[in-house]
Amino acid sequence: MSWRTVSGGRIDRSRLVQFRFDGKSYAGHPGDTLVSALLAHGVHLMGRSFKYHRPRGVLAAGSEEPNALVHVDRGGGRETPNLRATQVEIYEGLVATSQNRMPSLRFDVGQAVGLVARFLPAGFYYKTFMWPASFWKKAYEPALRAAAGLGRAPVAADPDRYLRRYAHCETLVVGGGAAGIVAALQAAASGARVMLCDEGAAFGGGLLDERDAMIDGRPAEAWLGWALSELASRPNVTLLARTTAFGWYPDNLIGLAERVTDHLAMPDPKLPRERLWQVRAREVVIATGAHERPLVFPDNDRPGIMLAGAARAYLNRYGVKPGARVVIATACDSAYAAALDLHAAGVMIAAIGDLRTDPRSPGVDAARAAGLPVRTGAAITGSTGGLRVTGALFGTEWVACDCLLMSGGWTPSLHLHSQSRGKLGFDPASGAFLPLETAGQRSIGACAGMFDLADCMPGHAVMGSIAPNGTHAGLVKGAKAKRAFVDFQNDVTARDLLLATQEGFRAIEHVKRYTTTGMATDQGKTSALNALAIVAERLGTTVPEVGLTTFRPPYTPVTFGTIAGASRGALFDPERRAPMHDWAAGRGAVFEDVGTWKRARYFPAPGETMAEAVARECRAVRTQAGIFDASTLGKIEVVGPDAAEFLHRMYTNAWLKLAVGRCRYGLMLSEAGFVMDDGVVGRIAEDRFHVTTTTGGAARVLHHMEDYLQTEFPGLRVWLTSTTEQWAVIAVQGPQARAAIAPYVQGIDLSPSAFPHMSLRIGTICGVPTRLFRVSFTGELGFEINVPAEYGPAVWAVLMESGTLTPYGTEAMHVLRAEKGFVIVGQETDGTVTPDDLGLSGMIAASKRDFVGKRSLRRPDMLAADRKQLVGLLTDDPGIVLEEGAQIVEDPRQPIPMRMIGHVTSSYPSATLGRSIALALVEGGRARIGATLYVPMPGQTIAVRVVAPVFYDPAGDRLND
Amino acid sequence: MLVIPCPHCGPRPENEFRYAGEAHIARPADPEALSDAAWADFLYMRGNPKGRHAERWRHVHGCGRFFNCIRDTVTDRIERTYPAGTAP
Ligand SMILES: [Zn+2]
């Protein structure tokens, strides 16, 4: 038989849409959700419960649905688990499957053999699996993972596209029901920017479910159509359907998740799947409505048992009858509206059991007048049935039915208000918490306790709607607590809550965690108040005394894709490329990540291993000349009449007397006295310096300099400009470096006497303006050619044409500098290393009374003799290369844990020296030179000799060649 | 995400800024004159109030300037911001 009504509803009856659920084909109409289409085929069984695998039907009609969760597969890796079937709009070819079933919904092994039934009570996470510990990995976890849990995560990468938008508006209205629409109309009239969003496919909220209501003299549906076209016609209004306001962040920043294409069979490929809106609103109007409360009684979770308001929605919105013989259990007048609408659609109302002894309302009167069997003071205490409800128990009397509707009244949706840190007050009349006034926002309509449609629409005449008076929370009087479900999604019963209080839990936040009530995807939407009432009653206190648990974003689950947006793959952390990157890539360079930079690590010749390539590159630099892309070095232009004085205060060494055209190695400390950065600084003019920093330290150093310049030395006339990306830097290093560049340099005398080590000249190279530095980080004669970044590749290409230069990468650079004992900040240092620890006391200008970090160097801890100091290490076996980071001990025979006195900071095989070398920080290291220490490693203990940290050309003769 | 009123640029979202610690801790004019204890106090001791807090921010992805800010650490409400070097 068909469960469709003859007419009505917001579906297109002229067209059929085919879809599949659990492998079976069904047809529905455009406008249907998965749930309404299944109900139209009489299908109520839509899921299995989380812990007990009990058969479950649909409970609600909106995003609060706890039971009917499905996995939708759109093909090509487009899979989404845990979707609420109440919100899944059907389209031609939709494929959905139920979750949590073994192997099928109708026959589930988990329930049949009680697989999980033994893990039942509250706190089962904490108690059942505590002992023996070894059972957790072997037995409990695998069994639980198989039996419990929600959907399964997709395996393939998500092929869909997600976008992000930012928006500002004067008024953001969240919720497009009657209250929200009225507020949006009002705000829009002033001309201000208004945004109205609703999580549903259609605006209207509860108005969509009204059959008889009249607004301003026209039917609710007609009024709604007028209001929406009015809003749509205004250029200052943005309407966002299928858009959930999922989170509230400080200063009225609201996160909206817009589902753009999931409801379409053939989406426009230009559209993103979902869109994240970050909206900054002057005022947020919260009109998020209310959720109907289930009644808590034994077996209140069978398929066919649903909320009265949901049944009304399925009937009026989708033209679907939820059953043929309906029983209603209620404490609220709104259920009478459902009864009357169902009755009018030809559904038999077998009984209306009202918990109240003397309910009075137009709804009750109308039901009686229609001849519906109203019982007062009638408490629902149980149900019968298997895969579908077959009867309702009132005291001792069974009433047969195929659908049982319940209503315990309405709980305002406080999630957004509460996320905004808005305060709540308990309203005894409605039995619910209500939002209290908070700056920058207001709550209106049902979420503010205005449940009556007329109250939601100030300034409009509303007739023919039944006000939902009456409320009930907690266990139904006289009903047993066993199998009386409070949180359907987490399978938490009234008994679990009572057990938790019996075991001593008093604070509601503890009860929540112990029982897991109100957790997971529904965030307590249907369960919170019932749980509170049960706990309060057992503790002999009141609901406001117990208090609410905290609401946290997101309101409903948000996909990772929406959060990530375009920040995926190459755009997740965009890479920076040096000017000569493409040349290096073309040459077959192997790159490494240095911060966000890609740097060429080595240039393997065909068939060469990394070790062979690095050895060849090092030999070329030591015997001929190499060429290296040093462009990633940070560069800061320091300009102004007080530039020298500023550097004098920021670096440890003296700067005032540095001549124009000369360079100096600068050491920068934090105020605490620890080495923070280093680099070569050249004086371009009296008032202009070219400062270089480490590759990773550029931004940090500029920030540090700006901090002192702006806040401590504001009187200095100095300007700082980052020029890292303005200069390409080509290092040419080796005994033949001068010969290699000489043919291309104009206007600079390159002879050693005219252009000594640690100086700089301005001229041209290949006709391009250059700042040419004579500096070395290899220990060889060296030049660093700075040219405007765009010219870098061309100059590089010309230099390569000579055929005398060997390109080398960062690995060879590391080896070459380690042979010379040059430190790398961040490798030899870790933020606790002083200049003296590195053997760089000579860098401290004795003449300076102050510089940043100087006073700290005098603190007693900074002068201790047992500080870790930089030394060289030579393994007894020259073929062994130590591991960087390896720990060093004095006596390898001491018991474990051994006393560690230092660690290896750098370690390489050195082709030049024909053996391995290492740098290390060792307690009192300089006093240990000549001693043997040990590096315990898995399988062997390596003996090392402590030496001075310079392995090659200690006198530095080659530099001054 | 907070909206922070930069005294030079006006209100901007928090991700344009970088926090820079407690405000109004001036570097001593002559550090050498300080005892070890006084210097350590300057380096490391900071208030951690529950409530009104004077702190420094830098509009690092904007004008680049450091400024001071009075923020309530409980409510996150910013009472006011004012240029570096001026009194609260
Ligand atoms: Zn600014």
CATH level 4 superfamily of the largest domain in chain A: FAD/NAD(P)-binding domain
How many distinct folded domains of chain A?
7
Which term fits the overall shape of chain A? elongated
Fold-level CATH name of the largest domain in chain A: FAD/NAD(P)-binding domain
Q: Structural class of the secondary elements of chain A?
A: alpha+beta
Kindly estimate the percentage of residues of chain A that lie in beta strands according to DSSP.
Answer: 25-35%
User: How do the SSEs of chain B run, as a string of H and E?
Assistant: EEEHEEE
Strand order of the largest sheet of chain B: 3-4-5-6
Fold-level CATH name of chain B:
Folate-binding fold
Q: Number of domains in the coordinates of chain B? A: 1
Helix content of chain B: 10-25%
Keywords:
heterodimer, A: 961 residues, alpha+beta, Ubiquitin-like (UB roll), FAD/NAD(P)-binding domain, 7-stranded mixed beta sheet, 23 helices, 52 strands, 21% helix, elongated, B: 88 residues, mainly beta, Folate-binding fold, 4-stranded antiparallel beta sheet, 6 strands, binds zinc ion
